[in-house]
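Q: Here's a chain of 156 amino acids. Please give me its 3D structure as tokens.
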Amino acid sequence: MAEALAVVGIVANIIQLVDFGSRVLKRLEEYQSGLGDIPEVFHHIKAELPVLLDALRQTKAVIDAGSMQDDSKKALIPAVEGCGIQIQLLDDVIVKALPASGDSWAIRGRKALRSLRYDAKVEKIIAVVRGYIQTLTYHYAAAYTLRPLVGMTLVS
């Protein structure tokens, strides 16, 4: 019973994370289109977050197809939860560092100056997100592209 709850939990976490990550990307795109270019540090996350979200969607598709073993699902839970924490941290930084379209010029100016303080924090988030992308990609590649090789005999 606990394993079934873990499976449902990972799928729910992936759905929630993809939704939240998509909203973060949309916020960056809205900022860029409405208020000008995003600060340099956000360019990397804007390029890499879609890769993470795609890896999560692929993982969910494999789970939904019933192709993933329960042990693998349980092993992925910490990675999925860790992704969620990083995306939440990123969203918090975006709220503090990037002005909204309705902000006054004074607030925009203060946030522009303050945004420089967040560069190191965003870089750290990016590094952690890259690690999760690598973990999810490696897991997917190892588990599902090598699967046809299992049980094959080599001919000399």
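Q: Can you summarize the key feature?
A: The mean pLDDT is 79.
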